[in-house]
Design a protein that fits this description.
By secondary structure, the protein is an alpha+beta fold. It is built from 14 helices and 17 strands. α6 packs across α9 and α13 packs antiparallel against α14. The longest helix is centred in the C-terminal third of the chain and has 22 residues.
């Protein structure tokens, strides 16, 4: 009998589908329309119905806050439905298409307040490799001095969930899995997941934002884009029920599907090896580190927005990718370190002296406006100061920090302000190399941000090994 022990999240994916069903507006359950609902990672959620919800086949279709229905025997709730293509046949029947933000599978949510939940479960790409733990263990017993195996024992023991608290709630690491087969083939599959639980009901968007933070964290630590394989919401007053209507006593999982910038990787993708990551979860500090990240990362929204767009954007001009990466470095330094060219009191004294010496009131007002931001460090200065904070991670990539910071800031200024670079020219190919190479300018900026955002703010405060994190990041 062949036995397979697998940690990959295969068999679990936001599956694309197309199905026929019946749909209606929550406020008008009597006017039901036949239609087709489709979902794909490229196009997102799309609904096409025959007819008009308001009964006016010739009028302009109106946006719908929510459309509910039944598809293949499953209750569906579609959120934020915007009219798209509309075709009116000669017989007067309208075929109306709606672009949908996302769909909830498993329950009809007929009121806007219904879309509140107390927890969310998420299965992510690379989570199994990142946590570096598995409930599956395999032991081989060898005979004939190790020349052949005489027996193999595989054990699947799902551990109790582990939890850690953050300022808004609790994060849980748990495992699900499947086993099965026959006398010739038997398979075991482990599927770790992360769960965010809040003390009270909250809008689904708030929980979804927490999922995005987990996705960003794993992307930074594994140094490759992390897709969402499955996402489910829960609330205690919507239990799982049998066909008879009897409650099983635990919340029903309401699956959510939407078009994502980073779709999950194919089932057959190999597990990411530890030496290719910046840090595993254990190396970063365990589940407590994840909780600390969830509580602290909102401070870095502007920085992460620019940085992660370069990871999740599958189609992005290299100029925009370069500018976003540099902007994230500048925003991070401004947010955390601030800084100024001169001491604030010295600058204020010199500024007042210059303003009082001017006799032209209009010119004085103009200069006062200029001086409001004149004491801020230049981009080059910010990059050099940022370099010092993460030097162990990037020193092998930079021979001289001065020319490096000038090159990065010069290219940014050329793209943004069309400034002359004193005869130095570059093209899109140069920027592509700079964005993709481990020796490129923005790669250094990215590694600096990965180390600083991901590790120093939390590891230093909790006594975790920041130096080892920085060293690891330089080897990716």
């Amino acid at each position: 009998m062949d036995a397979y022990a697998c940690r990959a999240p295969g068999g679990l994916k936001m599956e694309e589908f197309s199905g026929l069903g019946t749909f209606w507006l929550p406020e008008d359950t009597d006017s039901q329309l036949a239609g087709q609902l489709t979902f794909s990672h490229d196009e997102g959620v799309c609904l096409t119905v025959i007819g008009a919800f308001d009964g006016n086949q010739f009028g302009e279709p109106l946006p719908a806050r929510r459309i509910v229905g039944v598809v293949d025997g499953k209750y569906i709730a579609l959120e934020e439905c915007e009219p798209a293509n509309s075709v009116l046949s000669g017989a007067g029947a309208r075929k109306q298409e709606y672009r949908v933000q996302g769909m909830f599978i498993g329950h009809n949510f007929e009121h806007s307040s219904d879309l509140e939940f107390s927890s969310v479960n998420v299965w992510l790409d690379d989570l199994a490799a990142w946590i570096d733990d598995s409930p599956i263990s395999v032991t081989n017993t060898f005979a004939d001095e190790g020349r052949r195996s005489s027996s193999t024992e595989a054990r699947f023991e799902i551990p109790l969930p582990r939890t850690a608290d953050f300022d808004r709630g609790t994060v849980t690491l748990g495992f699900t899995g499947t086993t099965g087969g026959d006398r010739s083939v038997y398979r075991m599959r482990s599927r770790p997941y992360l769960k965010i639980t809040l003390p009270n009901l909250a809008p689904w968007q708030e929980l979804f934002n927490h999922v995005g933070r987990l996705q960003d964290l794993i992307t930074i630590c594994t140094d490759r884009s992390c897709g969402i394989r499955k996402l489910t919401f829960e609330r205690d007053d919507i239990p799982e029920r049998a066909l008879s209507g009897r409650s099983f006593g635990f919340p029903k999982e309401i699956e959510y599907r939407t078009g994502l910038l980073t779709p999950p990787r194919p089932e057959e993708s190999p597990i990411l090896e530890e030496h290719k990551m910046l840090l595993t979860m254990k190396g970063a500090g365990g589940l407590e580190f994840v909780a600390s990240w969830l509580g602290s990362v909102p401070t870095f929204y502007p920085v992460l927005g620019s940085l992660m767009s370069t990871r999740y954007g599958r189609k992005l001009y290299v100029e925009n990718r370069y500018l976003n990466t540099v902007a994230s470095a500048e925003s991070f330094h401004r947010l955390i370190h601030g800084g100024s060219r001169l001491d604030a009191e010295v600058f204020a004294e010199r500024s007042l002296r210059a303003l009082f010496s001017m006799k032209d009131g209009e010119a004085c007002e103009w200069l006062a406006g200029i001086l409001q931001h004149a004491n801020e460090p230049s981009l080059g200065q910010r990059l050099r100061r940022l370099y010092k904070t993460v030097k162990p991670a990037v020193s092998s990539l930079i021979e001289d920090v001065g020319p490096w910071s000038m090159a990065v800031s010069g290219a940014r200024n050329r793209l943004t302000h069309l400034e002359d670079m004193h005869g130095v020219e570059f093209n899109s190919g140069d920027l592509y190399w700079a964005n993709s190479s481990d020796h490129g300018d923005t790669a250094v900026s990215t590694k600096s941000l990965n180390t600083s955002i991901g590790f120093s703010q939390f590891n230093v405060s909790r006594g975790l090994p920041f130096n080892s994190a920085a060293t690891l990041s330089s080897s990716s």
